[in-house]
Amino acid sequence: MARLRAIVGDADDEHHGVRRAYTSPGTGWQIHNTFTAELSPTDFVTDHIALDLASGIPPGSHVESSLSPSWNPAFNAGASYTFSKNWYATASVTYLPLKTNATVTAYAANGQPALTNKTRITVNPWIAFVGVGYRF
Questions:
Q1: CATH number of domain containing 85
Q2: Which residues are CB-neighbours of 9 under 8 A, at least 6 positions away?
Q3: Which pLDDT value is given to residue 63?
Q4: Which residue segment(s) compose the domain that 128 sits in?
């Protein structure tokens, strides 16, 4: 990590040479643990189950879904710019290549699994952050 400093003012300024503003760029990486505390089927899935129940599937059928926990890297870069003693601005961007497994199981009225579907989910979001802060 490095710090870039800039002097604000001109040669006639009585405070010449006093640091007034500076930029602090930075990069980094993290290990990200992805897990779900609670996962339930959406209304879309539930509504389609209700339609199937109306067309002859016995009451008591239900659907369960789960996501497997996973460890994923995260990479970020950003900078903070201090423009006065207390005020600063900051911006960063993070890339999180997220991979996990999803399982959806439909159960018959007797409690036996009628259908199980497993799939790999890959999501690669770019997350941007911009902020202004005040140091007390």
A1: 2.40.160.20
A2: 15, 16, 18, 20
A3: 79
A4: 4-134
